[in-house]
Write a structure and sequence with these properties.
There is one protein chain. By secondary structure, this protein is an alpha/beta fold. Helix content is 34%, strand content 14%. The protein is built from 7 helices and 7 strands. The strands form 2 sheets. The protein has a 5-stranded mixed sheet with strand order 5-4-3-6-7. A two-stranded antiparallel ribbon has the order 1-2. The longest helix is centred in the first third of the chain and has 51 residues.
Length: 343
């Protein structure tokens, strides 16, 4: 559009300039919006490319993390007292030369010897023929590793009662038992606990095994036995807790675990095992909590003094403010960011 600026008034010229300025501003806004959109798209593309690389890393990358040996001269150490019985071995390189025999067919080395500490039951089998007057010139010995299955039996304690004239009745004192008035003996209680917590054999499987022996035991009864035995073990639990938390260096972490819910049959709730590891003494302490909040570790570590090593979970940040606790980061977690940054 051609305008003759000589024939327009001053007011019209000012109005025209205002329109031109508005058009210029609109064009600048359009260019700005376009540039911002391009920048956003480029940023999103880079982020998506990064996610693809991370997914490829998880699917096709190595799953194993390699760490430096403890005797690396460039590896810093923490100021902890190492126990006297702890030995640190140094790697010594030596050149070894040897001669390799040509591969030939070798004879079978034979069976491995059976452990010498096992009891031996000897069975002597004489020939069916009459050996009267014959001289024994040797023996053929065949060893088998045999098993006597565990069996249930009744251990009956009988205490005779004697009448003492004008004094009453005399009877021997009953020996102490793990659980008073319990039908299960100490050996049975110990086996049930070992089968469950060491060999991971649930109670219902153990009860099926008892049924094959013709013994019916209710699940609720065995559950009560477990509760009573756990109460007997509380002093050991308290001593383990005392020894582990008494160290000046602890590593802590939490692991989720599904726990059967008593109030909802067949359902589970999400619980947590808080694990406390003493690297110097190589001791572990497990503390179960319903949740992943800070209440559990704060209560357990309220009297702890020393170094506490954890990952970056926010709950542990509160310990950095404790006067007697020095919070130490997990170097394995920190290493991952540097390792990823190499590319």
């Amino acid at each position: 559009m051609n305008l003759n600026l000589e024939n327009i008034s001053k007011a019209e010229l000012i109005e025209l300039l205002k329109i031109q300025n508005s058009v210029n501003k609109i064009q600048e806004e359009i260019v700005k919006i376009r540039d911002e959109k391009i920048e956003f798209q480029e940023s999103k593309i880079k982020h998506l490319e990064f996610q693809i690389k991370e997914l490829q890393r998880l699917v096709f990358g190595t799953k194993r993390e390699r760490f430096e040996a403890v005797n690396n001269p460039f590896q810093l150490t923490l100021p902890f007292d190492v126990a006297e019985n702890t030995t640190i071995t140094e790697t010594v390189k030596e050149k070894i030369s040897y001669e390799r025999e040509k591969a030939t067919k070798r004879e079978h080395p034979g069976r491995l010897p059976l452990p010498a500490h096992l009891p031996v039951e000897e069975i002597i089998i004489e020939p069916k023929e009459d050996t009267t007057g014959l001289v024994c010139i040797g023996k053929e010995i065949t060893d088998e590793l045999e098993l006597t299955p565990a069996k249930l039996y009744i251990k009956r304690t009988i205490r005779p009662k004697y009448a003492i004239p004008e004094q009453g009745v005399l009877i021997a004192e009953l020996p102490s038992r793990a659980i008073d008035k319990c039908i299960a003996g100490n050996g049975l209680l110990s086996q049930i606990m070992v089968d469950k917590f060491v060999d991971h054999l649930p109670f219902y499987r153990q009860l099926e095994r008892f049924k094959r022996e013709g013994v019916e035991i209710k699940a609720s009864t065995v559950d009560g036995w477990q509760t009573a035995v756990c109460k007997l073990l509380e002093p050991l639990y308290d001593e383990l807790k005392k020894q582990v938390l008494g160290q000046g260096y602890l590593q802590a972490d939490e692991s989720p675990i599904k726990v059967l819910d008593r109030n909802k049959k067949g359902k589970t709730h999400h619980g947590y095992y808080w694990v406390y590891h003493s690297p110097i003494e190589k001791m572990l302490f497990f503390d179960y909590q319903y949740g992943r909040g800070r209440e559990g570790p704060e209560n357990l570590l309220k009297n702890f003094k020393g170094y506490l090593q954890t990952d970056g979970y926010v709950v542990y940040d509160a310990f950095a403010e404790k006067e007697n606790i020095i919070l130490v980061g997990c170097m394995a977690h920190a290493r991952r960011y540097f390792e990823k940054a190499l590319d």
